[in-house]
Amino acid sequence: MAEKNNVEKNDPIDQMRQELSSGNKKLHAGKTQRAHKSKARKVIENVLFAVAVIVLSVILASVLVTRANGKTPQVFGYQLYRIESGSMEPTLGVGSLILSHSPENASGLEKDTIITFISSDGKTITHRIIEVVTSEDGSVSYRTKGDNPINSPDNDLVLPQNIQAVFVMKIPLT
């Protein structure tokens, strides 16, 4: 009978031990799952970081090669230009950086559009279209002028094939 009492007294203790053991197993299983999730997350983060570094490196290399060849670099069809004269003041001051994009249809631009083009003497110029000129054969050209009030319209008409970019926005850093 003493043995039966002893077993009954140990029974709640054994139950507690089993519950603690079961709880420890669940806790350990939870930690293991979190550790696996954490490892997987770190792997994904490292892969994404590596991809971002590779993409940015390719873009940088592309820009450097393009500049070395004397052309204007493009990233996803966008270009940066720096205004070097006062011809576009007060809209765009000297030293302003502008973001522009390649036109989808250089023959379909409208009056008041700011464009960057190559002039007949090979200079890169940013001016506003003040007139769309359509010839008898249906070809289009543009008369341009800087926004500065003292400017007169440019002498040469701009042909669509000479248009490099259409103004998107002024970069606010300048």
Explain what this protein looks like in three dimensions:
There is one protein chain. This protein is α+β, with helices and mostly antiparallel strands and 174 residues long. It folds into 2 domains: 71 residues; 93 residues, Umud Fragment, subunit A (Ribbon), CATH 2.10.109.10. Helix content is 39%, strand content 23%. A 6-stranded antiparallel sheet has the order 1-2-6-3-4-5, with no helix packed on it. It is rod-shaped and about 105 Å long.
Comma- or semicolon-separated keywords:
Umud Fragment, subunit A; rod-shaped; 174 residues; 6 strands; 1 helix
Report the C-alpha radius of gyration, rounded.
35 Å
The multimeric state of the shown protein is single chain
CATH homologous superfamily placement of the largest domain: Umud Fragment, subunit A
Order of helices and strands: HEEEEEE
Q: Determine the fraction of residues in helical runs and give it as a percent range.
A: 25-40%
Give the CA-CA distance, first to last residue: 95 Å
Task: Assign the CATH architecture of the largest domain.
Answer: Ribbon
For the biggest sheet, the summary is: 6 strands, antiparallel
Percent range for β-strand residues: 15-25%
Number of domains: 2
User: What is the count of helical runs?
Assistant: 1
What fold name stands as the CATH topology of the largest domain? Answer: Umud Fragment, subunit A
- Structural class per helix/strand content? alpha+beta
Strand order of the largest sheet: 1-2-6-3-4-5
The overall strand count is 6
**CATH level-1 class of the largest domain:** Mainly Beta
Assign an overall shape: rod-shaped
Question: If you average the pLDDT, what whole number results?
Answer: 84
Low-confidence stretches: none
